Protein backbone atom coordinates (compact mmCIF):
# COMPACT_ATOMS: atom_id res chain seq x y z
CA UNK A 1 0.00 0.00 0.00
CA UNK A 2 1.39 3.42 -0.87
CA UNK A 3 1.55 6.02 1.88
CA UNK A 4 -0.75 9.05 1.90
CA UNK A 5 0.96 12.23 0.72
CA UNK A 6 0.85 13.71 4.25
CA UNK A 7 3.20 10.95 5.53
CA UNK A 8 5.92 11.49 2.91
CA UNK A 9 8.15 13.60 5.24
CA UNK A 10 8.25 10.71 7.74
CA UNK A 11 7.91 7.80 5.31
CA UNK A 12 11.30 6.49 6.48
CA UNK A 13 9.61 5.35 9.74
CA UNK A 14 7.28 2.94 8.00
CA UNK A 15 7.68 -0.70 8.97
CA UNK A 16 8.79 -2.88 11.86
CA UNK A 17 12.01 -2.26 13.77
CA UNK A 18 13.76 -4.44 16.36
CA UNK A 19 16.51 -4.01 18.92
CA UNK A 20 18.28 -6.68 20.92
CA UNK A 21 20.29 -4.26 23.04
CA UNK A 22 18.23 -1.43 24.44
CA UNK A 23 19.59 0.35 27.50
CA UNK A 24 17.53 1.83 30.31
CA UNK A 25 18.70 4.17 33.03
CA UNK A 26 17.23 6.66 35.44
CA UNK A 27 18.66 8.53 38.43
CA UNK A 28 16.78 6.45 41.04
CA UNK A 29 16.85 3.06 39.22
CA UNK A 30 19.56 0.50 38.49
CA UNK A 31 20.41 0.42 34.77
CA UNK A 32 18.80 -2.35 32.73
CA UNK A 33 18.67 -3.87 29.24
CA UNK A 34 15.64 -4.66 27.09
CA UNK A 35 14.60 -6.07 23.73
CA UNK A 36 12.01 -4.03 21.85
CA UNK A 37 9.97 -4.06 18.67
CA UNK A 38 8.53 -0.88 17.19
CA UNK A 39 6.01 -0.75 14.42
CA UNK A 40 4.84 2.23 12.39
CA UNK A 41 1.98 0.94 10.24
CA UNK A 42 -0.19 2.91 7.84
CA UNK A 43 -3.61 1.41 7.13
CA UNK A 44 -4.53 4.05 4.54
CA UNK A 45 -5.24 6.99 6.82
CA UNK A 46 -2.81 9.96 6.99
CA UNK A 47 -1.16 8.64 10.18
CA UNK A 48 0.91 5.77 11.47
CA UNK A 49 -0.50 3.29 13.96
CA UNK A 50 2.31 2.89 16.51
CA UNK A 51 3.22 -0.02 18.80
CA UNK A 52 6.21 -0.66 21.03
CA UNK A 53 6.60 -3.95 22.90
CA UNK A 54 9.58 -4.45 25.22
CA UNK A 55 10.75 -7.75 26.70
CA UNK A 56 13.32 -8.79 29.25
CA UNK A 57 16.46 -9.85 27.32
CA UNK A 58 17.04 -13.12 29.21
CA UNK A 59 13.63 -14.58 30.00
CA UNK A 60 11.61 -12.72 27.30
CA UNK A 61 8.86 -11.71 29.75
CA UNK A 62 6.91 -8.57 28.79
CA UNK A 63 8.24 -5.32 30.28
CA UNK A 64 6.47 -2.34 28.72
CA UNK A 65 3.98 -1.69 25.94
CA UNK A 66 2.91 1.45 24.12
CA UNK A 67 0.16 1.81 21.53
CA UNK A 68 -0.89 4.92 19.73
CA UNK A 69 -1.03 7.07 16.65
CA UNK A 70 1.54 9.34 15.03
CA UNK A 71 -0.03 12.05 12.95
CA UNK A 72 1.51 14.79 10.83
CA UNK A 73 -0.26 18.06 10.12
CA UNK A 74 -0.54 17.97 6.30
CA UNK A 75 1.80 20.34 4.51
CA UNK A 76 3.94 20.97 7.61
CA UNK A 77 6.63 19.31 9.70
CA UNK A 78 4.40 19.37 12.82
CA UNK A 79 3.65 16.03 14.49
CA UNK A 80 1.48 14.67 17.29
CA UNK A 81 1.86 11.27 18.98
CA UNK A 82 -0.94 9.98 21.19
CA UNK A 83 0.27 7.04 23.31
CA UNK A 84 -1.34 4.68 25.82
CA UNK A 85 1.14 2.98 28.15
CA UNK A 86 0.35 -0.32 29.85
CA UNK A 87 1.23 1.08 33.29
CA UNK A 88 -1.81 3.36 33.31
CA UNK A 89 -0.75 6.49 31.50
CA UNK A 90 -1.80 8.25 28.32
CA UNK A 91 0.38 10.97 26.84
CA UNK A 92 0.04 13.47 24.04
CA UNK A 93 3.40 14.47 22.60
CA UNK A 94 3.84 17.15 19.95
CA UNK A 95 6.84 18.31 18.01
CA UNK A 96 8.37 18.36 14.58
CA UNK A 97 10.30 16.36 12.04
CA UNK A 98 13.22 17.42 9.90
CA UNK A 99 13.01 15.82 6.47
CA UNK A 100 16.67 16.55 5.64
CA UNK A 101 18.18 14.99 8.79
CA UNK A 102 15.44 12.35 9.22
CA UNK A 103 14.87 13.29 12.84
CA UNK A 104 11.73 13.61 14.96
CA UNK A 105 11.60 15.46 18.30
CA UNK A 106 8.45 15.19 20.43
CA UNK A 107 7.64 16.55 23.90
CA UNK A 108 4.66 15.96 26.16
CA UNK A 109 1.90 18.56 26.11
CA UNK A 110 -0.46 16.58 28.35
CA UNK A 111 -0.49 13.46 30.51
CA UNK A 112 -3.48 11.57 31.93
CA UNK A 113 -2.96 8.98 34.64
CA UNK A 114 -5.27 6.35 36.11
CA UNK A 115 -6.05 6.90 39.81
CA UNK A 116 -4.22 3.78 41.00
CA UNK A 117 -1.08 4.05 38.85
CA UNK A 118 2.15 3.34 40.69
CA UNK A 119 4.14 6.32 42.05
CA UNK A 120 6.06 8.39 41.13
CA UNK A 121 3.82 10.17 38.63
CA UNK A 122 5.24 10.76 35.16
CA UNK A 123 5.03 14.45 34.26
CA UNK A 124 6.79 14.68 30.91
CA UNK A 125 8.47 12.76 28.07
CA UNK A 126 10.86 13.92 25.41
CA UNK A 127 11.30 11.49 22.52
CA UNK A 128 13.96 11.74 19.80
CA UNK A 129 13.80 9.37 16.82
CA UNK A 130 16.54 9.56 14.21
CA UNK A 131 17.21 7.52 11.08
CA UNK A 132 20.94 6.70 11.11
CA UNK A 133 20.84 4.74 7.83
CA UNK A 134 18.01 3.27 5.72
CA UNK A 135 17.99 0.16 7.96
CA UNK A 136 18.98 1.72 11.31
CA UNK A 137 16.91 3.83 13.69
CA UNK A 138 17.95 5.40 17.00
CA UNK A 139 15.37 6.17 19.69
CA UNK A 140 15.95 8.09 22.91
CA UNK A 141 13.37 8.72 25.60
CA UNK A 142 13.76 11.25 28.41
CA UNK A 143 11.33 11.24 31.33
CA UNK A 144 10.39 13.58 34.17
CA UNK A 145 8.46 12.45 37.26
CA UNK A 146 7.19 14.32 40.28
CA UNK A 147 10.42 13.29 42.06
CA UNK A 148 13.03 13.44 39.24
CA UNK A 149 13.81 16.15 36.68
CA UNK A 150 13.81 15.40 32.94
CA UNK A 151 16.51 12.72 32.54
CA UNK A 152 17.55 10.18 29.94
CA UNK A 153 15.60 6.96 30.48
CA UNK A 154 15.86 4.75 27.37
CA UNK A 155 18.22 4.53 24.40
CA UNK A 156 18.26 1.93 21.65
CA UNK A 157 19.43 1.30 18.11
CA UNK A 158 16.86 -0.56 15.98
CA UNK A 159 17.29 -2.55 12.79
CA UNK A 160 14.52 -2.64 10.19
CA UNK A 161 12.82 -6.04 10.18
CA UNK A 162 10.27 -5.41 7.42
CA UNK A 163 8.77 -2.55 5.42
UniProtKB/TrEMBL annotation:
Domain THAP4-like heme-binding, residue spans: 7-160
Taxonomic superkingdom: Eukaryota
Pfam family, one: THAP4_heme-bd
InterPro entries: Calycin (IPR012674), Nitrobindin (IPR045165), THAP4-like_heme-bd (IPR014878)
SUPFAM superfamilies: Lipocalins
Catalysis: reaction(s): peroxynitrite = nitrate
Signal peptide as annotated in the record: none
PANTHER family given in the database record: PEROXYNITRITE ISOMERASE THAP4, THAP4 PROTEIN
UniProt-recorded name of the protein: THAP4-like heme-binding domain-containing protein
Amino acid sequence: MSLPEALKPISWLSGRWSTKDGHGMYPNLPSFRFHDELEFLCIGQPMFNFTSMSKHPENQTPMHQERGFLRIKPGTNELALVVSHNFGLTSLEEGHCCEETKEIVLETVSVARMSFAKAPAVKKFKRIIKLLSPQTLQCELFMETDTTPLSEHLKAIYTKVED
